[in-house]
Amino acid sequence: MSKINVKIAQFSLISCFLISTFQLKAQKAEPKTLVDIPLEANKALYYSSNKTGTYQIYKKTDSAEIRLTQDDAFNYWGIKVAPDKKKFLCYRAAKGLIIKDNNSRNSELWLFNMDGGNGQKLIGLSDNKWRAQSSASWSPDGKHLIMAAEISDKDDFNRNHWHLFLTDSVGKKPVQLSTRSTSFSDPVFSPNGKYIAYSALPTGTPYSLCPTKFMEIYVSQIDSASQKIKNERKLTSNEYLDGRPCFLNDSEHIAYSISPGCVNEVEYVDLQLVNISGKSYDLKTDKSVKTNTMGAEDGYIYFQYRPGLTGNSCIARIKSDGTGFSIIYQGSNFSIINPQMIVN
User: Fold this and answer.
1) Radius of gyration of the chain, Cα coordinates, nearest whole angstrom
2) Cβ-based neighbour number of residue 320 at 10 Å
3) Residue (of 133, 76, 79) closest to 105 by Cα position
4) CA 83 to chain centre
5) Domains with residue ranges and CATH for the chain
6) Please, which domain of life does this record's source organism belong to (predicted)?
7) How many Cβ atoms from other residues are within 10 Å of residue 67's Cβ?
8) pLDDT along the chain (344 residues), means of 10
9) What does the pLDDT read at residue 157?
């Protein structure tokens, strides 16, 4: 890949992380709810919302909504609940001007108890000599975290690339899993722990003013001896941005977002399903934005949904066969993002 192409890819990826994570205007009006579907007694919905001005982490049950993070000087997002359901991860960035907050270069990775207490910074802005970090999630046994980070790549003349990293459960002892000097993002483990899925640029991506349109969904394994990716397979092949993969409970199917545009989530973003053999299916295709999926234990796929080209994001769900779509929580003047549905 040419130096120009790599630089454009890096800029585009940063733009994707910035735009897809937040709508950055603070909400000053009294929060108003459009849709609020009651939850079953054994379920809890976790998410991030800017209903108070900055993005904070919330928990919603059949009886109440509880704000879990309390510092309005910071934005919190990207929640991932631990497998034992005792703690959660999220990212934190200081409130500021649009260009200075809410993006991967200004993010710290934090760990909280499920009630929002005992906050602990795991990876700070200057740790590991990383330029940026994103997309941290848990291994099924809770012993490791997997994430993407932008580094100076010694295998490509110290050019900056996004790579995949594995750490222990508190973000220490980082090991670089990926070796190709392209770009990687959004890694997740399968529920059975056998695979990881992620989005990446293939080797030899042709020059383009919009190289992120060549991001594809991959599945691979982690070699326990070398601590590197092995048996890597590309599951998608198109000129779209394929990203934000999420395994369903069967560990055989992956839901992901597919965007036709150069800047993700400015245009419409569809939801698709692919099995680990590479056969893909449409889940929901229309003029809306669908991203940050989660395959929950109740059999639904929960995701962040924006009904049109403008407006606020909300939480919706759909079945893996494409039926049963519904919005479950939507505000008229605030956004709700990064859903995590927990079944007790």
Assistant:
1) 19
2) 18
3) 133
4) 17
5) 3-343 (2.120.10.30)
6) Bacteria
7) 13
8) 44 42 52 95 97 96 97 95 98 75 85 98 95 97 98 82 97 96 96 98 82 92 96 94 96 94 70 95 92 96 90 96 97 96 94
9) 74
